[in-house]
Design goal:
Length: 368
């Protein structure tokens, strides 16, 4: 019997529930998200996180709010103008929840353009178009991830020079970070299904521990051969354990391929280059931000120091630092394109031209 995959987002028209990831891996509790205020809250507090999941929950929170208003307060949405103003205001608000992952901004722009392009529809018709588009994002993300998994698995096996591979992944990029299957972790799943995965190592991913709490949970849940390491063990692992590839997700890929991802990704890319290990970024095209020319322009979210000075256990949050110490807590860092072997997308694998240290993503998009 095949096991059901984990679901971060449960949706049917009018009802959005998200898995509270702050309570994982110890408790499985879904929380209702009936409107954009709650959508903003679950994203900001990281009950739901991961670039694609953030965008989908934002869009679906708007969809459920519109759906409810259509029956409870139809006069608020009875003209095209009212719906357009309502949708655009809510999107502006949702965008203030977290700054780095571009998927939220891409989804917002898409919905806003949809509203602009449907100025001839009635209010209820326009609301229903927005609802349907948000629902399609949920379906499309799973298919995109399946494609990423397949392309990434093929690329790694073709370049690994061995029959089975050991890989390392960072943060959480699986079913919990997406609508399902996952990006980097989707590739790990495909490697495992192909029978060619010898082992998957995952980092703890301090300070928030998305690796030890969430990725480790997914790996155990799926019976994938796996081992947890502290972030500080990565270089020793590459030196001693014959790892063939580091596979990570992305929160924003700039036009030249520079990639923002969970803090700690940059040092993994440096150690991968030193040890001649493939460094693979896995992301749907919606994570590529062609308006941002290089990684220097990416806004990096800084979070509260308490996430560094304490750690959350099964029953309590415990302090792990000397009281009074200053803290710097950037949530993401940027890997220069020069350190990235390939960017695996839902449309195929982007590699660099020989002798170049950046990706020609514009050409890839034009041709695919
Ligand atoms: O702060 P988070 O947990 O939202 O950060 C998540 C990551 O950095 C992921 O690696 C990235 O969003 C890709 S998820 C498919």
């Amino acid at each position: 019997m095949t096991q059901k995959t984990l679901e971060a987002i449960k949706y049917k028209r009018g009802d959005l529930q998200v898995l509270d990831q702050l309570r994982l891996p110890f408790e499985t509790v879904y929380e209702a998200v009936p409107n954009t205020v709650q959508g903003h809250h679950v994203i900001k507090t990281m009950k739901v996180r991961g670039a694609p999941a953030i965008a989908i929950v934002a869009a679906l929170s708007l969809a459920v709010e519109l759906n409810a208003l259509l029956t409870t307060s139809p006069t608020t949405l009875d003209t095209n103008d009212k719906v357009a103003t309502f949708v655009n205001e809510k999107l502006e608000y949702l965008k203030t929840s977290r700054p780095t992952a571009v998927n939220l901004f891409e989804a917002s722009e898409r919905l806003s353009n949809l509203v602009r392009d449907n100025g001839d529809k009635s209010g209820p018709e326009l609301a229903s178009i927005v609802i349907t588009e948000a629902e399609e994002m949920l379906i499309k993300d799973v298919q995109d991830n399946k494609n990423i998994g397949k392309f990434g698995c093929e690329f790694i096996l073709a370049n690994a020079n061995s029959d089975s591979v050991r890989v390392l992944t960072h943060c959480n990029t699986g079913s919990l970070a997406t609508a399902g299957w996952g990006t980097a972790l989707g590739i790990v799943r495909d490697l495992n299904l192909s029978g060619k995965l010898d082992h998957c190592y995952c980092t703890e991913t301090r300070p928030y521990n998305q690796g030890s709490r969430l990725t480790a949970y997914e790996l155990v849940y799926e019976n994938i051969p796996s081992t947890l390491i502290c972030d500080s063990m990565a270089s020793a692992l590459l030196k001693l354990k014959n790892v063939k590839a580091i596979i990570v997700g992305a929160d924003r890929v700039a036009a030249n391929g520079d990639t923002a991802n969970k803090i700690g990704t940059y040092q993994l890319a440096i150690t991968a280059a030193y040890h001649n290990v493939m460094f693979i970024v896995a992301a749907p095209l919606t994570t590529i931000d062609m308006k941002t020319l290089s990684g220097d322009a990416i806004v990096i979210e800084e979070r509260a120091g308490v996430e560094v000075t304490s750690t959350k256990g099964r029953t309590a949050t415990v302090e792990v630092a000397a009281p009074g110490i200053g803290v710097w807590n950037p949530a993401f860092d940027v890997v220069p394109a020069s350190l990235i072997t390939a960017i695996v997308t839902n449309k195929g694998v982007i590699t660099k031209n020989k002798g170049e240290d950046f990706f020609r993503i514009d050409e890839f998009i034009k041709n695919n």
